Amino acid sequence: MMIGITGTAGAGKSFFAQIVKETIPSFSIMELNDIAAEHNLFSGTDKFGTRIVKVSALNSKVKALQKNGKDANIALVGHLLPELKTDLDMVFVVRANLEELIKRLEGRGYQFEKIKDNIIAEALDYCGVNSIHLSKDVFEIEGRAEMENAAKLLKAHIEHGKPIDIKNKPIDKMPELLSLIKGANKYKF
Ligand SMILES: Nc1ncnc2c1ncn2[C@@H]1O[C@H](COP(=O)(O)OP(=O)(O)O)[C@@H](O)[C@H]1O
Ligand SMILES: [Mg+2]
To answer: For residue 33, what are the domain limits?
Structure first.
């Protein structure tokens, strides 16, 4: 099967992918950024100096992967997943606390405006909302406990065909955004 793991930068996609790998060692973890880098699928840089990925070229690579890896368990990981046009068995959208996300992105040295863009994207659930064309099963998870539970459910699904018992309801970030707006912080949302 091919699953997707997406979410805002710093939300914990790679962290969750690692938990999936530890729980189900047969999974191959494929980061979209690595696929783009390996095949040099870039068309310049954005206003933050980040390389822009050629999405249609990336889509073709993913389609080829899907065709050649029919019998494998593959997890595609990346914030660009919603831009792809492909059918996945399920998608996990990794969500994060907004204040925590600010700290993580500051830790990565992201510029002020880039952090702001990412926090707004997380608050509005950009990745979740834009993933619905990828699969009928799009699950939102947040925090280590929910990640571990999702990995366990995925294992039971693969081994025994059990349905993945996670509510399809998106996580509401409005209370966190309101608290950021009201609180004293330099981002002034
Ligand atoms: N649930 C979590 N508990 C503790 N640390 C986490 C959790 N999720 C992510 N992190 C940490 O946050 C940082 C960003 O996570 P990462 O998986 O690299 O994000 P992404 O791949 O979405 O950009 C990493 O240092 C990771 O270890
Ligand atoms: Mg990552």
So the answer is: 2-182
Which residue's C-alpha comes closest to atom 12 of ligand 1? 12
28: domain CATH number is 3.40.50.300
Spatial CA neighbour of 128 closest among 119, 136, 138, 120:
138
> In Å, what is the CA distance from 2 to each residue of 29, 60, 77, 90, 176?
10, 15, 11, 8, 32
Dump pLDDT digits (tens) for 125-148. 999 999 999 999 999 999 999 999
47 φ/ψ sector (left φ>0, alpha ψ -120 to 50, else beta): alpha
pLDDT in tens, 50-85: 999 999 999 999 999 999 988 899 999 999 999 999
Number of domains in the chain: 1
Query: Which of 8, 14, 15 for mutating ligand 1's site (highest number of atoms within 8 Å of CB)?
Result: 15
pTM, whole model, 2 decimals? Answer: 0.97
Distance 31 CA to ligand 2 centre (A): 7
Q: Give the ranges where the chain is alpha helix by DSSP (H).
A: 13-23, 32-38, 55-68, 98-107, 112-123, 126-129, 144-160, 174-182
Nearest ligand for residue 7 CA? 1
**Residues 14-39: tens digit of each pLDDT:** 999 999 999 999 999 999 999 999 99
